[in-house]
Amino acid sequence: MSTTRPYSPGDRGPESGGASGAPEGGAPGTGESEGGVPAVMGAPVPVSAGAAPTASGTAAPAGPGPASGGGRQVRLLNFEDASGVVPLARDFTREALYAWGWLPSATADQRAAAEDVLLVVSELVTNACLHAEGPDELRITCEKKVIRLEVSDRGTGQPAPRTPHRAGRPGGHGMFIVQRLCLDWGVVRTPGVAGKRVWAELGAPA
After folding, report:
1. Contacts 24+ apart (CB under 8 A), 101-106
2. What is the value of pTM for the model shown?
């Protein structure tokens, strides 16, 4: 389930300067699950029936799968002092997909949708590593058959697909992939707060 946007998304907040690809600042903390339950990396948290363990060694309650119209489910991963943040983010996201019923996949379309989610989270985290000195936090939300990925960092640059895009040219493909695979994506900034959140939304197959 992919759409192509004919334009780059605008900044959904005040632009604090910088250009796409410019060096930025970022730092990796602890995670928490929605509802105020802390999920500090490595610390045990009570697990509800059907919950899947998270990459940080904790667990959050399992939510409805992509075929369900259930409520909103959220998972957070903080990258403070973490190494190997891209595989860490992929493992964390994969565990969320299992908990929410996107995995294991019953059909090729469902498998492709889950693989798209994992690819996009890899690209967002990699982009933060290359242009913002690493991500601060990954937030994954599942609601009404839509997965929303948000990667926060302290960078000032504006992510954008390289234009014109040339498949054979090295580099510059990450945000192009995000644009092609996602229903929508963009950047959010909070006035008076350094950094930004790059978000992307992907839908489950019909």
Report:
1. 101/62, 101/63, 101/64, 101/65, 101/66, 101/67, 101/68, 102/65, 102/66, 102/147, 102/204
2. 0.65
